[in-house]
Design brief:
The protein contains 12 helices and 19 strands. It has about 425 residues and is an alpha+beta fold. Strand 18 and strand 19 form a beta hairpin.
């Protein structure tokens, strides 16, 4: 028998442990080489674990287990032959389980008399101090209340429920579902939570706001949408305009494109823009490397590729690390205004929001324009108010007048048409 020990591979630098999120196979299944057998959560991404060889698999870890990089999580018997007609037993398995399942309620109810007899102790029917106070205040006899605590003790919750009708309240409020479910947060969600709390505690975060007129971008998209898609194979969206406007503004205000390392400030001469993308496991931030050198086509193609990887769970850790500035678009979910949280170790983040037709004053006349509120949260330790406001005004200039500022005055040439 030739047994292969499958160990947890390293998903990236500085990651020492992962969590088994989901097994995609069952113990004893036959797996093919490179077949995804599990999804594992690191503190940065969810990754698929492929089978290294074909054979019968034996699982050595449970879902939810935190395992170290290099730890054995399953065994594969490479000498095992692929079973023929494996689908038939799989279909019969639920039928065999149905009989004991039907009998479970009977088994569960049988010992009840014994349990009730055993529960007759000094605590049976006795209210806890907190429960007694509630029952006395509401004039409820403890003998009329069934205790759900240990050995039949009446708990505070029991007293509160019993007191509702006595208070003249609706009995409906006491008979509705009060169930709750507790689930463990994934490694990724726990890491996100700790990072967000750290940002609030360790940075001097402020937010500045402005609004942009999307009229010109609407006009350009309507005029060139089909031609752009036919020539470049991708659509032209809002994000490429905002990315262009942001990279221009970062060159004008370099401290916004910086980070703090202890007592030192690190300025970057490149713009690696993190784009927030919603995926099955939460918000991910893949990075556009050297976005300042990308064309509209390049930005749209790279965003499409990265977003697809996020939604398919195939994004790598390297593709989500090293950004210098983040753009997030809450407008896709209907957000009108928000204060985005900085993505550490970056020092600033731009929040986009939904687009609303609003009356605005233009040249002394009231006109209806598609308007969007934008917000920039920044670390006041290295970015002053003047720079933050100036940066956001520079972004506004690029969005309000994209042809002159982002395309050099030639819209067709700017879109490579």
């Amino acid at each position: 028998m030739s047994i292969l020990e499958m160990k947890v591979p390293s998903p990236g630098e500085s990651i020492t442990e992962v969590e088994i999120a989901t097994w995609l196979v069952k113990d004893g299944d036959y797996v093919e080489k490179d077949q995804p057998i599990a999804e594992v959560d690191s503190d940065k991404a969810t990754l698929e674990l492929p089978a290294e060889e074909s054979g019968i698999i034996t699982l050595k870890a449970e879902e939810g287990d935190v395992v170290q990089v290099g730890q054995v999580v399953c065994l594969i018997d490479r000498d095992a032959a692929k079973p023929e007609g494996a689908a038939a037993p799989a279909e019969e398995a639920p039928k065999k389980e149905e009989a004991p399942k039907a009998a479970e309620p009977v088994k569960a109810e049988a010992p009840k008399p014994a349990v009730q007899a055993a529960a007759q102790t000094y605590a049976t029917g006795a209210p806890s101090p907190a429960a007694k106070k509630i029952l006395d205040e509401k004039g409820v006899d403890a003998g009329q209340v069934s205790g759900s605590g240990r050995d039949g003790r009446i708990t505070k919750t029991d007293a509160e429920l019993a007191a509702v009708p006595a208070m003249g309240g609706s009995s409906l409020s006491a008979t509705g579902s009060r169930a709750s479910t507790t689930t463990k947060l994934s490694v990724l969600r726990r890491k996100i939570a700790s990072r967000l709390v750290a940002v609030k505690n360790e940075t001097a975060m402020l937010t500045t706001f402005n609004e942009v007129d999307m009229s010109e971008i609407f006009r350009l998209r309507k005029l060139y949408k089909e031609e752009f898609a036919q020539k470049h194979g991708v659509g032209i969206g809002f994000m490429s305009f905002f990315t262009k406007a942001v990279t221009r503004a970062l060159k004008m205000y370099p401290d916004v494109n910086a980070s703090i390392d202890g007592d030192f400030k690190i300025n970057y001469d490149f713009c690696d823009i993190s784009i927030a993308v919603s995926g099955p496991k939460g918000l991910m931030v893949p990075v556009l490397r050297n976005a300042e050198n990308m064309s509209f086509k390049g930005i749209e193609a790279n965003i499409k590729d990265l977003a697809t990887k996020v939604r398919d769970g195939k994004i790598s850790v390297d593709e989500m690390t090293g950004g210098t500035f983040t753009i997030t678009n809450g407008g896709t979910f209907g957000s009108m205004l928000s204060t985005p949280i900085i993505n550490p170790p970056q020092s600033a983040i731009l929040g986009m929001h939904n687009i609303i037709q609003r009356p605005v004053a233009v040249d002394g006349q009231v006109v209806i324009r598609p308007m969007m509120y934008v917000a920039m949260s920044y670390d006041h330790r290295i970015i002053d108010g003047k720079e933050s406001v100036g940066f956001l005004v520079a972004v506004k200039e690029g969005i309000d007048n994209p042809v002159e500022i982002l395309m050099g005055g030639d819209e067709r040439r700017g879109l490579e048409l």
